[in-house]
Amino acid sequence: MMHLRFITSNKHKFEEARDILKRYGIRVERISIPVVEIQSNSIEEVAYNSLRYLVERRLVPSMSFLEDAGLFIKALKGFPGVYSAYVYRTIGCEGILKLMEGIEDRYAEFKSAIAFYDGKSIHVFTGVCRGCIGLEVKGSFGFGFDPIFIPEGFNKTYAELGNNVKNKISHRARALISMVKALRANIF
Amino acid sequence: MMHLRFITSNKHKFEEARDILKRYGIRVERISIPVVEIQSNSIEEVAYNSLRYLVERRLVPSMSFLEDAGLFIKALKGFPGVYSAYVYRTIGCEGILKLMEGIEDRYAEFKSAIAFYDGKSIHVFTGVCRGCIGLEVKGSFGFGFDPIFIPEGFNKTYAELGNNVKNKISHRARALISMVKALRANIF
């Protein structure tokens, strides 16, 4: 059985990854190391640089990955994007709904970027889930902006759909599956 | 005459610093180098780490400084804070006013942190300007959130007051003056 290590301080992210990777027969262990994130408009760049920082200092073993994710709202020029965690901690879901008041185009994308270290180099995998911003906070599963994000093809938020559904269609699931495919294809 | 170097890609910041330092008989030259900023809740940490990154790579000469600044709104738990530039580029002044709708406590602080390299080590100086968020966008001077920030003791925004007044009372002026005092006291 393959073993991977997920560097994250977010237990929700870890649990999602554990459930998703289990379906592919992969076990994942959580590593908590303080990670330095750079300011950038791209989650790929944040994930890549955060992992490179750790790799350069020999702080991570081989077969480790970390993830950066963000909610990109079209009408808000991509806000909160790469700073989603900070924006969630400050203005929260309610703040986003207030900003979206009176705005008709509610299109948004949740994006995930995984940086993976195979012991030699760093590979980046991405996943996107298209959807829209709901009119109110709904549901109690998940974390962060899950209660206001309605994925395409559903009329419920991530937080209403629950982890079972979310983990099949989410941005994070898609990025993880890209990584799994690369691992299986033995491309490294 | 003392010569300093200000590492910034923001011409407004440079012009303010030039005008402020001129009053103290200090000349300042602008250097444009791409700067890597980390994600942090503290502008002091961002300024310090950005400069350290450049110093470690010998990319900056002695007597150089850079600055990080942010608008911290109490009712929004410090938002937009350290990510003010990004928030300005996405949701702008109008977004902040929308978030502040119906909120009575409009207290806010503009903060500036300067990291200065004397050729041996890095020193950090800070400046704060207390004030509040106005009810509408007003004035055309300055940049960023200047049109919605009313400094304490005034009934006009930074952008209405203009550079002459702003450069006497602003967060940036205060941080620069702290730096000047340290330089004059020859503490390095």
Q: How many alpha or pi helices of chain A?
A: 6
CATH architecture title of chain A:
Alpha-Beta Complex
Q: Determine the N-to-C terminus distance of chain A.
A: 18 Å
Indicate how many domains the architecture of chain A comprises.
Answer: 1
Report the radius of gyration of chain A as a whole number of Å. Answer: 16 Å
Q: What is the chains' assembly state?
A: homodimer
Mean pLDDT of chain A: 95
User: Class of chain A in CATH?
Assistant: Alpha Beta
- Summing up helix and strand content along with how strands pair, one would put the structural category of chain A as alpha/beta
Provide the descriptors you would attach to this structure in a database record.
Maf protein; homodimer; globular; 6 helices; alpha/beta; 188 residues; seven-stranded mixed sheet
Commentary on this structure:
The structure is a homodimer of 188-residue chains. In chain A, 36% of the residues lie in helices and 27% in strands. The first copy, chain A, is built from six helices and seven strands, in the order βαβαββααβββαα. With 188 residues, the first copy, chain A, is α/β, with parallel strands linked by helices. Chain A has one domain: Maf protein (Alpha-Beta Complex). The two termini of chain A are 18 Å apart. The longest helix of chain A has 14 residues. In chain A, β1, α1 and β2 form a beta-alpha-beta unit. In chain A, α1 crosses α6. In chain A, strands 1, 2, 3, 4, 5, 6 and 7 form a seven-stranded mixed β-sheet that branches. In chain A, 45% of the residues are buried. The first copy, chain A, is globular, with a radius of gyration of 16 Å. Chains A and B meet through β4, α3 and α4 of A and β4, α3 and α4 of B.
